[in-house]
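To whoever is on call:

I kicked off a structure prediction for a single chain this morning and the downstream step that reads the tokens threw a length-mismatch warning. I double-checked the sequence; it's 82 residues and nothing unusual in it as far as I can see. Pasting both halves so you can look.
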Amino acid sequence: MNNGHNTVGSDALALSLKEAAKVLSISERHLRSLVAKKLIPVVRLGRRVVVPRSLLAAALERLATPTQRPRSSSESQVKRRN
């Protein structure tokens, strides 16, 4: 039974910072640092700050996209020799 408070697993359109941190398995402090770096988008509703689920999913996709290709083992060995 829902007592008016959304749970993290609910179908809420947006999550509080505390809920979003829990979903991501990171601390709320770390989430706030990602928000400050504009890596995780938020929406301000008056004084309340929420993370829309759709924007959170899109941000995770962007963050998960590799920016550099991993070095092969032969490239690593050459670099260590020099």
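Update from on-call: the warning came from a stale cache, not from the record. Cleared it. Sanity check on the structure: The longest strand covers residues 48-52.
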